[in-house]
Amino acid sequence: MEVILLERVEKLGQMGEIVTVKDGFARNFLLPQKKALRATETNKAAFEADRARLEAENLERRKDAEAVASKMAGLKVIMIRAAGESGQLYGSVSSRDIADAVTEAGVAISRAQVVLDRAIKTLGLHDVVIRLHPEVSETVVVNIARSADEAETQFNTGSAVTASDADVEVVEEEVVEELFEDEAPEEAVEEVAAAADETEEEVEA
Fold first, then answer.
1. Are 111 and 95 a contacting pair, CB within 8 Å?
2. Using CA atoms in the order 42, 46, 51, 53, what is the torsion angle rounded to 10 degrees?
3. From start to end residue, where is composition biased (Acidic residues) (predicted)?
């Protein structure tokens, strides 16, 4: 089907271009969302007669979107979620969840503006694109963690904190405590030094 684009459509074309698309894509997406018109002679003439107004309105919307994008630049949001030892979430984070988090952070957006192929199901830092206008997008960092402390660690390290990481630290502490259970660390060091001196004396003898 041939259609006239009423706005820029990624990987398809700019406003005013006449492009050929699959019928299903046109009927299910472009036409109902008013992103395009069927490229009939009547619609072509109507578009050309109204082109100046449409372009002016698009320019105004783009300016508004750019203003919002400037406020969103560098934005990072934290989302606290329950997760298993491997970092797998008990549930998932959807585009609606992200839209709510960004809005709570001070920039009002809708679920439809969040570009997310699939729900997020793991802990960590996730770059998510927010499309504010067909020609204006901004990326926000979504930090999904089990607690505020873990979120801060993830910001600092750039990687997810899993339960296994915490377990390793606990085990290391327990091993150290077991080794020095009956003596202070200083005493243990003195014993090692004394043993080394004895060995050295034996060698010299």
1. yes
2. -160
3. 179-190
**CB distance 115 to 137 below 8 Å:** yes
Last residue of a domain, one of 11, 38, 65: 65
Asked if residue 115 and residue 151 are part of one domain, the reply reads yes
Give the CA distances from residue 189 to residues 124, 195, 197, 200, in Å, rounded to whole numbers and listed in that order.
40, 10, 12, 17
Q: Higher model confidence: residue 122 or residue 10?
A: 122
- Smallest Cα–Cα separation from 160: which of 139, 145, 174, 148? 145
Looking at the DSSP assignment, which residues form a beta bridge with residue 20?
A: 2
Print the domain residue range for 41.
2-65
Tell which of 65, 95, 114 closes a domain. 65
**How do residues 45-58 score in pLDDT, each as one tens digit?**
999 999 999 999 99
Residue 24 tokens read as 């299903």
